[in-house]
Each structure stands twice: as structure tokens, then as C-alpha cells.
Backbone:
């Protein structure tokens, strides 16, 4: 049986989409095929890697990528994690379900290092709350 393909998109594919990819791979195990990409490729944010590691998920081997038309066309779901990606995402085929999950960009957080990292944790946890519910519906 073919696994559902989920494609998480964000502006720079450095934080939110990487975190979502990490959670979906971790929680979906071998039941789903998961990718992430961006309108631009800003590189994997070290703080995103660190807060995911705290939560027991290693995303350090993931890479920041531009949207791949082949993955976009084979995706069952395209989930944008910010308005910019939603607005600039290329057209998707009719069979692709598009969802928009808006999350604050932790890379834009200001303040002390602890305050910035806390924002990353907040976004990580908000995405973690969303992913299992989505996967449960998807895998059912």
C-alpha cells in the first residue's frame, strides 16, 4: 500500500517546516512519507535542532531545501506553516490537499538568548500538538 506523502512548506525551510518534518517522521514512523522545503533555503537553524533534541527528536541530518516540483506533484498534502509560503507556494495539482497551519517564526524572536530559545520551544510544542492529530486522521 502506498504511504501518504506530506510536504511541509515555509519561507526559509530553517525552523518551522524542519520541526514539523521532524515531528511527522518521529510520530508517523514508517506509515507516512514526509518532506519539507522552502520558498528559499536559509539553512537548518541550530536552535531548531537544539530544541528538537531536547524533545528527543534528532533533525540534525535534515537539510534546508527549495520546493521540489516532483515532490509537490506527488504529495497528498501540502501544509504551509506561514502566510508567506502559503501565498508564494506554486500551484498544486488538484489531488493535493492544501492546509495552512500558521505559526510564529521563532527565528524572528528578539530578547535574551533564553527568551529566543523559549520562543523556539513554544513553536516546537505548538507544532507537536498539531502533528499527531493530523497523522491520526491521515493514517486512519
Residues:
Amino acid at each position: 500500500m502506498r504511504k501518504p506523502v506530506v510536504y511541509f512548506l515555509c519561507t526559509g525551510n530553517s525552523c518551522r517546516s524542519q520541526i514539523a518534518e521532524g515531528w511527522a517522521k518521529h510520530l508517523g514512523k514508517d506509515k507516512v512519507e514526509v518532506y519539507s522545503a522552502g520558498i528559499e533555503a536559509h539553512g537548518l537553524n541550530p536552535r531548531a535542532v537544539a530544541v528538537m533534541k531536547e524533545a528527543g527528536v534528532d533533525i540534525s541530518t535534515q537539510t534546508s531545501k527549495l520546493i521540489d516540483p516532483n515532490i509537490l506533484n506527488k504529495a497528498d498534502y501540502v501544509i504551509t506553516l506561514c502566510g508567506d509560503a502559503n501565498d508564494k507556494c506554486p500551484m498544486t495539482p488538484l489531488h493535493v490537499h492544501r492546509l495552512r497551519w500558521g505559526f510564529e517564526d521563532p527565528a524572528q524572536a528578539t530578547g535574551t538568548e533564553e527568551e529566543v530559545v523559549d520562543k523556539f520551544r513554544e513553536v516546537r510544542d505548538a507544532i507537536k500538538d498539531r502533528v499527531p492529530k493530523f497523522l491520526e486522521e491521515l493514517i486512519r
Observations:
- Helices lie at 16-28, 46-54, 69-74, 83-88, 113-139.
- The CA atoms of residues 74 and 134 lie 19 Å apart.
